[in-house]
Specification:
By secondary structure, the protein is mainly beta. Helices cover 0% and strands 44% of the residues. The chain has no helices and eight strands. It has strands at residues 8-12, 18-25, 30-36, 54-59, 64-69, 78-80, 85-92, 102-110. The strands form two sheets. The chain has a four-stranded antiparallel sheet, with no helix packed on it. It has a four-stranded antiparallel sheet with strand order 2-7-4-5, with no helix packed on it. Strand 4 (54-59) and strand 5 (64-69) form a beta hairpin. The radius of gyration is 14 Å and the shape is elongated. The two termini are 20 Å apart.
Length: 117
Amino acid sequence: VEEGQQERIVRLSGEAEGALLWRLVAPGNRRIQLTFDPKFGLEDPEDGMCKYDFVEIEDLSEGAVLGRWCGSHSGPGSLQSKGTQVRVRFVSDEYFPSEPGFRLHYSLLPMSEDSEV
């Protein structure tokens, strides 16, 4: 994440097999806000767990997974990191295409704003 880059859209439509990882790093005095688009659709959970197609967000500064989402419900809305780094992991198997996939926006926030994760 560059200082001049305030937002970028990552868009996948469930065609990938395996795992895709993105590591977002903000400048030292900034943290990262992630916002899921309301149109969210990945493979449904099995036995209440996201096993096959899912997106997972980890706050690397805290070493904590902020959540894992799948199914056809809305994404979690907005999440804010406590530190300067997050990892986005998308996992997909080859069996059921995920529609419509997910869209995730990120932006930078000052470190001084309160965060609720």
